[in-house]
Amino acid sequence: xxxxxxxxxxxxxxxxxxxxxxxxxxxxxxxxxxxxxxxxxxxxxxxxxxxxxxxxxxxxxxxxxxxxxxxxxxxxxxxxxxxxxxxxxxxxxxxxxxxxxxxxxxxxxxxxxxxxxxxxxxxxxxxxxxxxxxxxxxxxxxxxxxxxxxxxxxxxxxxxxxxxxxxxxxxxxxxxxxxxxxxxxxxxxxxxxxxxxxxxxxxxxxxxxxxxxxxxxxxxxxxxxxxxxxxxxxxxxxxxxxxxxxxxxxxxxxxxxxxxxxxxxxxxxxxxxxxxxxxxxxxxxxxxxxxxxxxxxxxxxxxxxxxxxxxxxxxxxxxxxxxxxxxxxxxxxxxxxxxxxxxxxxxxxxxxxxxxxxxxxxxxxxxxxxxxxxxxxxxxx
Length: 381
Known about the structure:
Layout lengths: L12 H14 L5 E2 L11 H13 L11 H15 L8 E4 L1 H13 L5 E6 L3 H9 L3 E6 L20 E5 L11 H13 L3 E5 L22 E5 L12 E4 L5 H11 L5 H10 L3 H25 L3 E2 L7 E5 L7 H12 L1 E2 L1 E2 L11 E5 L4 H18 L1
Parallel strand pairs: 1-11, 3-4, 3-5, 5-6, 6-7
Antiparallel strand pairs: 2-8, 7-8, 9-10, 10-13, 12-13
Helix pairs in contact: 1-10, 2-8, 3-8, 4-5, 4-7, 9-11
């Protein structure tokens, strides 16, 4: 059967690593998972309790395309609590995970052939979704001195239709402060381009609060999710904030693409937003794991790292060890039983010399993983 040209996208390499790790575990090996950006904890208990009650009382059919009004209001309230932003809940759109948000955003803003700038290294699915929709992802090779975040000079004169940034970023965990965010928004708007802010790791910060693009401008798209801070990856529920005049545009597309986000997940998400004590406990684990990683990775031989401001990743330059991160990650899994992600997932140009380590799992796993990595590197010579 003939395939479309738009279907010719690269694999999401971390999913291939997960499958290799699964096969190793199936064969009886114990694998330490540092590959996947997934909290080791499940949804907050309050979310599970709320859903259990709803299952008894409600058939949980379709919701309206924009999402449960109560959830939209609660998210708007959160922007006031976290950022002192007065947000109209009518601008909030509930989506099937952040992935659904990217599909809606790219479809609403761009036409086939439009060029959209994304920072490299960056989340690989940006590139693949844009390509599958017939758009042109433009990798912006960010610089270490800019903490691997884009700056206006990286896309000057490129005739972009849009710019997508992430803060805290995947795979680096670095963040944009308010002046950096403002400079990017102003430079994007000066080109007549659309600005998109991926804020999926907000809430997972260590020394300073992440800045939302909504603190700087209303004329932007913001994408977030319950997957990371709220520990609800498999529930597939997220949200977008869009300008007032974009709500109906997004609503029409959402009605046809998705009908709605899963009703059950929306019920759980609403309750999860008030589970502060449990969410803070999760954050305390990430903080402890981060400290272990920043101490243990250099001791193991991974010395070229930038301390992450947020998220739960460390991105390491291993170009002094190898230029084939995919083969090196496979060797680490085979010989050390630690699953890590090759940098090629995030940067097709320079990623052969980088690895991403996730520290989202239990602290005991992180400790064991670091010991295994140290032994592996010492034996490797």
